[in-house]
Write a structure and sequence with these properties.
The structure is a single chain. The chain is mostly helical. It folds into two domains: 42 residues, Arc Repressor Mutant, subunit A (Orthogonal Bundle), CATH 1.10.10; 145 residues, Tetracycline Repressor, domain 2 (Orthogonal Bundle), CATH 1.10.357.10. 62% of the residues lie in helices and 0% in strands. The chain has nine helices and no strands.
């Protein structure tokens, strides 16, 4: 990450990146409501007027931060999916890859709640769009979180783990389950012991897998 410099030390080409970095940390600390162009400008040591030269308003800055949050989620999903041997083409491996997409989603929500909330704070976006946020928000594979989920479901279908009639809209069902679980653990059930939370997560994912068969 770029180190914060003193006021006046920025060249025209890197102030935008510094503002984005500061705004990203604001999102990490307090979610989307904490992202403010004035505060990001203050943190990098420039006037807020200088910030407006790169972002016309707060919404423009928040959208860019949301893209980066979505990208971080995609990268974590790719990492956990890759923990299952890519050369393994069995039904068990396909099920485990699907499970890892859900585990990554929930882990990201619980470990980075500010970034998680920021990734999904923008309305009017369809998840089938690349990366869910325009051209950004994708991992190293070029896929966003929703596309990674779809790919895992398609692989499970090819491996015989999904009844063909149950594949349509299964991606939305899976998303609803892991998102709902994440929100429960972040809000009303945030005091649940970790062991119980993890056991509940495994059971939820097992129930979903069985429902697809």
């Amino acid at each position: 990450m770029m180190a914060v410099k003193e006021k006046g030390a920025y060249h025209h080409g890197n102030l935008r990146a510094a503002l984005l970095e500061a705004a990203f940390e604001l999102a990490r600390e307090g979610g989307p409501d904490a992202v403010a162009l004035r505060e990001a400008s203050r943190r990098v040591g420039v006037s807020h007027n200088a910030g407006y030269r790169h972002f016309p308003d707060r919404d423009a800055l928040l959208a860019e931060v949301g893209i980066e949050c979505m990208r971080r989620l995609a990268l974590l999903m790719e990492e956990l999916i890759a923990s299952v041997d890519p050369a393994e083409g069995t039904l068990a491996a396909a099920r485990m890859r699907l499970r890892m997409t859900g585990v990554a989603y929930i882990r990201f929500a619980l470990e980075e709640p500010g970034l998680f909330r920021t990734a999904f704070c923008l309305s009017g976006l369809h998840p089938a769009d690349t990366g869910s946020l325009g051209a950004g928000g994708v991992g190293d594979s070029g896929l966003g979180p929703f596309q990674l989920l779809q790919r895992s479901l398609d692989e499970l279908l090819d491996a015989g783990g999904i009844a063909p009639g149950r594949r349509p809209y299964a991606d939305y069902a899976a998303w609803a389950m892991v998102h709902g679980f994440s929100m429960l653990m972040l809000e009303p059930l945030r005091e649940m012991p970790v062991a119980e939370r993890d056991a509940a997560m495994v059971r939820m994912l097992e129930v979903f897998e069985l429902g697809l068969a």
